[in-house]
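Input:
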Amino acid sequence: MGRTDERAYGRAGVDLDAAARTMDLITREVASTYTPGVLRGLGAFGGLFELPAGMRRPVLAASTDGVGTKTVLARRYAAEPGVLEGIGRDLVNHCVNDVLVQGATPLFFLDYVASERLEPDAVAALVRGVASACREAGMALLGGETAEMPGVYREGEFDLAGTIVGVVERDEVVDGSRVVPGDAVLGLPSGGLQTNGFSLARRALEGRLDEVLPDGTPVWRALLAEHRSFLPAVRPLLASRLVKAMAHVTGGGLPGNVPRSLPPGTGVRLERGAWEVPPVFDLIRSAGGVAEAEMYDVFNMGLGFVVVVAADDAAAALSLAPGSRVVGEVVAGAGVELA
Amino acid sequence: MGRTDERAYGRAGVDLDAAARTMDLITREVASTYTPGVLRGLGAFGGLFELPAGMRRPVLAASTDGVGTKTVLARRYAAEPGVLEGIGRDLVNHCVNDVLVQGATPLFFLDYVASERLEPDAVAALVRGVASACREAGMALLGGETAEMPGVYREGEFDLAGTIVGVVERDEVVDGSRVVPGDAVLGLPSGGLQTNGFSLARRALEGRLDEVLPDGTPVWRALLAEHRSFLPAVRPLLASRLVKAMAHVTGGGLPGNVPRSLPPGTGVRLERGAWEVPPVFDLIRSAGGVAEAEMYDVFNMGLGFVVVVAADDAAAALSLAPGSRVVGEVVAGAGVELA
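Output:
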């Protein structure tokens, strides 16, 4: 149902007035995400979603994720416009990309917000961000849970996690099996850290968050840059059936994510100059004295999403996916080589 | 895929050795839950699950939940056998019941474990509990996320949340619409607090957790009694098509949960002597000086699940659902009346 009155504020210890205000604030946001699949008015405990009609062999793709310690930085700048909404959007976009790599498009989302103490405005901002990213992905915010747990979280801190369910036809699952050496590797820019590497970044940049980067962006804002959804860029590619494999570059960076989308015996060679490394990564490296290899093991280094297509299809794929560029090729071997 | 190597340990700041040990410990547990719907070997980011063949109009039922501050008590007694596993089972069973009320049976589950610092043995115990309850529900543990967030959680504390996806035929959704005054209300015993009311219970019983109840059970163990899954009792009832409405008695107790399963203009009258109130509730009331009404607003008071059937079907329903008994009837009006 996705009705906000399912959100479980009922645990003992919850400030029910604050909870009621929060519910009022988010009810409209949640309802604004409802797609035709959502069944309203049936029961009131879990959310109900009818699968799109006419699918041959529907396969569900599901993923649970959190936003990690990006929340700690967001809390510090929570008074700045859009910061908490951004964290909500980060979470959803991360999850969208995680099922997208298998060729699945989003059906619905459920969020989990837990904190030391519910601050209605903060919860509303987080859910507003979640809802806006759901709307953009054409996905219903079907349910959620909001928990106040004073003995568990540090004062004022919160955690945000979510689960996405998408769907793909059985014979359209993108599984990497057709990848061969010589295939082209396309990259899509991340624009920043996305949601990974924040513990290292905060350590490296402690005390320098309010400095300004050469392009005029404050460091803290560059760090909080939104986790991009690659659905708009990749959807036309999927429809074209040109895609052989995809990887979402999250924790573990390129070496930790690209290889697991490839069949055994294949790796990739990436041309380092082929994409832009956002300036915030240079600052993290120099300020934190972080070795180059560690940078690539922890951060996406500017490549947020990777798509493998046949070399002959590269030009067509580039024209279908706005913002993409060729960043390397598939090679015999294993792992990621940076040339 | 549900493969444990999807569990996102990759965030900066994670102790990768500890994470590797945890992964070893839980890999087999996760694999042991795989049902035929799980697609193995396809991609490696999200989990893939093929819907059962032959459904006419499949409707997905989804719910996200946590275990609340039951975790705080569990941590205090974490060295006792089965305590952390029990928390994992609590989470799953809670979610199973939440989709069961709409007539849905479980397909798959995803868990989210976050803590101040990953303790591999503790994470493994939690996931072992999650996996065992998934197996009993015939449900795959399709994915999960494990996050270490030192700045967010208090020292040694953790949170555990999860998402269930179940399925039901469109015309078999249980929605309460056929409920009329005179229908019989059947109850299933909770055996304890399930996962609600722990902040109040801990306040009321602080310093008395190691006392022993009249039946010989230590107070802490009575508090940690498992959140029962009502799937085994209710499944035969669902197959019989006798069920008109169901409620899972969670946060908000009977008044907070039973009415929302009923159509407008109907309420229930429950006969207080018709079910057993476990002794731990008497102790909470007397030790904490908690008013009777508040007890019913916060706790399930021994009734974990409620099923509405036609009065004429009550005898048949009782024989199909082991442990059930008639606890009241539907009346014209609204809300819950305790007679």
